[in-house]
Amino acid sequence: MGIRVAVVGASGYAGGELLRLIAGHPELDLAAATAHTQAGMPVAAVHPQLAGMELTLSATDAAALGDADLVFLALPHGQSAALAAQLGAGVKVVDLGADFRLRDAAAWERYYGGPHAGTWTYGLPELPGQREAIAASDRVANTGCYAAAVTLALAPLVAAGVADPADVVVVAASGTSGAGRSAKTHLLGSEIMGDLTPYKVGAHQHVPEIKQASGADSLAMTPVLAPMPRGILATVNARPIGRTHPRDVLRAAYADEPFVHVLPEGAWPHTGATLGANTCHLQATLDLDSGRIVVVSAIDNLGKGAAGQAVQCANLMLGLPETTGLSTFGVAP
Ligand SMILES: NC(=O)C1=CN([C@@H]2O[C@H](COP(=O)(O)OP(=O)(O)OC[C@H]3O[C@@H](n4cnc5c(N)ncnc54)[C@H](OP(=O)(O)O)[C@@H]3O)[C@@H](O)[C@H]2O)C=CC1
Ligand SMILES: CC(=O)N[C@@H](CCC(=O)OP(=O)(O)O)C(=O)O
What we know:
This protein is an alpha/beta fold. It folds into 2 domains: 3-142 and 304-317, NAD(P)-binding Rossmann-like Domain (Rossmann fold), CATH 3.40.50; 146-301, 2-Layer Sandwich (Dihydrodipicolinate Reductase, domain 2), CATH 3.30.360.10. The chain has helices spanning 13-23, 43-46, 80-86, 105-111, 130-135, 145-159, 189-192, 206-214, 246-253, 303-317, and strands at 3-8, 28-35, 58-59, 70-73, 92-95, 121-123, 139-142, 163-174, 197-198, 219-225, 232-240, 260-262, 280-286, 293-299. Residues 9-15, 35-38, 60, 74-77, 79, 96-97, 144-145, 177-178, 180-182, 301-302, 305-306 line the site of NADPH dihydro-nicotinamide-adenine-dinucleotide phosphate.
């Protein structure tokens, strides 16, 4: 028998992708999958892509999760803390929500509202020292989707002193699954098709998370909703310090990373090449006119931005090879 895991919020987009990854993972057995309004439904009725998965969604209740070795929480913001508090100390937890990502309680309250639940180990293994910290933790806060894409592009440049941490501008486009599955009128197909829409301009909740994870002091971010189901393409623009080329810094930082690929010179990341994989594709240049650093980062928001990243963290927490059950190759076209 394998390691028993449970998925809470399994009827959502992130939860569905977790179910798919767990089904293909050689060491993990699904012990329970829970939902809220859709409890009682067969998984395959809620997630047609999982046809053949013989499982019924149960109600979200700590007692139903008691014998899992590790629980993935894929709940809306603010819903994780109460449930996590009911799970025994011996149960490992990876929270895909934002409840435990931030160290700064004031920043949490400003961007999310409500009381700050606390701070868990941040779930981005590629940050220096973080892989070891995750492996030693029983509670891990998975990254936000934009935060994963932007932090992987920016953190090595700030750490190496080649990007000014006080002058960073981000424009990032996301597919609609990033917003979750619950019906939202602005996500109606008839309104998003053929349209690009900026939202949360200058006030996105991932800004404090990216600052905390990347070392940036000041960051202006414009998110854009793109008419595609999955994927994030982030353009990170920063004032350079010194003459080191940003591509050389990124290449050195990620030389041994299985999931982060700095593309060959001249090749630029695009979302389609990361879909279905746990990868982040990066490319960097110095703008010909301004000399500013430009890094482009692509991920699958449900892969490296959510469920893939969560499985990567779980592998570390469980003492498994980090890449187990995760794909480094996408499914394009
Ligand atoms: N989508 C993405 O790309 C990413 C998502 N995340 C985070 O992952 C988490 C889940 O996101 P996502 O899958 O997109 O969201 P969805 O809206 O698609 O799914 C939400 C899930 O939570 C359940 N749920 C809703 N309210 C409650 C409640 N009060 N108590 C218990 N369960 C509840 C829903 O159950 P039911 O359907 O039965 O009502 C559903 O299973 C969020 O915190 C999100 O920010 C993080 C990174 C990327
Ligand atoms: C397209 C879209 O609406 N995306 C969401 C991304 C949220 C997410 O995935 O991250 P969290 O876990 O921090 O919520 C947004 O911009 O708020």
